[in-house]
DNA sequence: AAAATAACCGAAAACGTTTTCGTGTTAATA
DNA sequence: TATTAACACGAAAACGTTTTCGGTTATTTT
């Protein structure tokens, strides 16, 4: 059974293609009689207009391209579920491209999609892209009138809609919390500065200390390569963190920029016979499954990924539908929330 | 800057559309001179053929539709990453639809995609679909010549390519392991029988006991609604499991059909002052982040999600490219692996 | 009965490609 | 010189829609 087309219906019922098209759209140009006949036939054989032909005609595809660094990652999946939720309601499809944090793959993914396959992009840039500071592909797609919405890891220099969290503020909030709980030597385990969000969170850490008149001790700052939270590098990650904790034995509070760092820190600390939260209090970032199910459960910053996804999709779709002025872009800042759990319990 | 088309290039260089098309394809029908001129112009203005037009012409879209019940879910994301990996290599795009385990959404998602947007489906059916046993949408798409590959949660009655794991065998393997570790009273925490994989794992549990001449005690079998592992129902889940453990205090081994059940069981057992693994040994299913990072780390069945995704994508693409005989379907069984960690340590 | 107006339907163009076939020009051959 | 072959290019159809514009009939109005 091949797909039914207008042409086939027309031939079968001995009318013109136009007549079929109009009849199915209930145009009153067509007599009630033929209209009913055609509609009956079409519905009996389950006719559905071909999306590709429609896309070509209307010059829009009703699909949005989402480019993310990784998909096996709690935060990004919550964002996708948010995007999918509003996209679906508004009749859009979602096509996913993974960059694997590689510049090459990000570029090629965007290239293959920006030739008519999608109406606009929602993306979080690859670490490598941030490292290389090469944004030509982004500029180019925007210049070619394909709207782009960036979320989470955004590029300030690029002019487009953005949805971010108050990373710096969230970090400040976390560190202030640790201070208020009586921690004196607060460490941060973060990424190297080229990772935009890592840098911002480090900044927030420093700000909190300064505002509370605590001296910054650079020994207490551990900046890690972003590849270290891969499954294959977990051992190495633990060694590094372990060494760090050993050489700064007086640490009594740790702020980590993701869940993996936090849990690994807890594990390493325990091996040094430190008790969590009695001896060391720990706060992480990203309220994923790990934070909820670890023992002790992890105090963490919730980024509200689903909301980020929903806002991003709305931003993009509004722009696609011309509901927003052409040359002004928005940056939506989602407020984070500190979710307190066992890892910062007062004992 | 509007998108460049063959027509515009043709007009600009004062040649015909056909000439431009041929020149860009390096056809030797076109003189070297004009060829170079056209190619230079096209590459200077960054011409890319319009995918939609190509899809319409070639009657294939080079995209595959993936329908899954949830995306905030470790196993499914690993499958997607596998699919994306091979799809990408072979020039295909991946479009994602989420059913949220709802029959309605599964049907509507497939409907909107099967009108030309995709060349084939890879899907894992929604729980509700399995409950209702309504497979009309699946039969219909297959009848309309849109190939379907099912993975993990498959429908035996439907004739199509499938990729599954040896669920029953894996469960048997796990329970046998517990027996060999000396467990006498082994419980299973599973889903209701309408969830295909839950049912199979329960079957494997029973088989292991029988083969080892252990009496089956139906009190030790806890079948839960599949909605209980949602974030919002975690409390309820814990209460149910806790009650179950209390009323079967002699349990010394638990096999759980997913990570969440396993970790919740561990938590509940601890509150009853049971030590893991000394008093109770626990084995879970799905080797996700939770299993690796929990304390104690969880012995678990690895389903090799990435491999499942890769095999599924290969199966689908081979069929799309006619590399496989039309009326015979394959079922690939991926072997699972028992990954031993702390929750089954011998003390 | 002639003219005007509905009512109903079809031809054709357009979206952007690819490809087949035809045609005119030039160069090589008989 | 006449014929043929090679070369370089263009017209047009096709993929499946939608929509504008005309064109027949049939029906109403004068």
Structure overview:
2 copies of one chain form a homodimer. The first copy, chain A, has 347 residues and is α/β, with parallel strands linked by helices. Chain A has 3 domains: 6-48, no CATH class; 57-165 and 305-335, Response regulator (Rossmann fold); 167-303, Response regulator (Rossmann fold, 3-Layer(aba) Sandwich), CATH 3.40.50. Chain A is 45% helix and 16% strand. Chain A has 14 helices and 12 strands. In chain A, the strands form 2 sheets. In chain A, strands 2-1-3-4-5-11 form a 6-stranded parallel sheet, sandwiched between helices. In chain A, strands 7-6-8-9-10-12 form a 6-stranded mixed sheet, sandwiched between helices. In chain A, strand 8, helix 12 and strand 9 form a beta-alpha-beta unit. The longest helix of chain A is centred in the first third of the chain and has 16 residues, at 74-89. Chain A starts with 5 loop residues before the first helix and ends in an 8-residue tail after the last strand. Chains A and B meet through helix 4, helix 5, strand 2, helix 6 and helix 12 of A and helix 4, helix 5, strand 2, helix 6 and helix 12 of B. Strand 2 (93-98) of chain A pairs antiparallel with strand 2 of chain B. The first copy, chain A, binds a DNA duplex (30 and 30 nucleotides) through helix 2 and helix 4.
Keywords:
homodimer; 347 residues; alpha/beta; Rossmann fold; six-stranded parallel β-sheet; six-stranded mixed β-sheet; 14 helices; 12 strands; 45% helix; 16% strand; DNA-binding
